[in-house]
Amino acid sequence: MTFGKLFSSNPRIRLAAQLSLSSLVPALPIIYWYQHAQKDRNQREHDVRTKLRIPAVQTVDDLLVEKCQPGDVILFDRRCEMCASGPPAALACILGKSILCDGDDGTRSVENGSYEHCGIVVPGFSTRQGAEHDPSNLCLLEATSGGGIVCRPLLTRLEMSRSRSVILMPLSCPGERRYEVNSDDVELSEKTQFLKEQTYSELVKFREKWLEDSKKEQYGRQHSYLSMMGSIMYLTGLYPTFPIPISPSAWLVVSALQDCGAAMKLNEKQSQQTRVEDFTRDGRFFEKDTVRLRPGWKFLSPVVMRESSV
């Protein structure tokens, strides 16, 4: 019997073929998009890796990284179509932007952008003397779909970003005169110096703990689906019932700020209900939808690290 006769005489085979075709048609543009996103990511990695760096000559990114310190929070207004970690990651990004982002409602310290992803600046892995004051040793700790909870050099992470906008939220501890005129010449008090050293050491411990836990629990496989569930729970109003974070990346950052003593110790449920947008509101003036810091701690005015209208 030929294939044509078998196809026409067996309704089950015919139905299976129709279902396969109907599922293949919408899958084609997704496959094309994913291949394009992967190609773009690989090209970006190649450009960053082979970038010509002239000794003693700083780029704009170098100068921006010098503004950062451990404990600072970085917000990303990502392009969902650029998510090269796969369709689930792109869908999680789309849901996060459409559900968890309020836009410019007049209460944010940031004028434009829909921020649904964030990370926290932590010390890098260098143990050489003076590394704690070296901007090149700074890393960004974040929860991702590709590798789970990852810690990557801050400069490389910034150069690799395809986000529409990247905002730095500088964290200032009690007594610190950061970004003020001649602030570099002002000697910190013993209390302020102690707080900064404590922040540094606690963030190192936090980094090691979560990197180990992520690898052990294979968090990278769960991130996208956990993000989608969090957005849907927020949309339906069921998030107080389920013990999952609304935004995994925001939950990670809040947990780090709590461990280093900057953020108020909330219960686990309150921490899990934090959104990325909440970092853009001053907890001294808002009771709701904000990140509450301990007395004396504050986020300074946002610094634009990357901005594009495209």
TrEMBL record:
Q: Which organism is it from?
A: Thalassiosira oceanica
Q: What is this protein called?
A: Uncharacterized protein
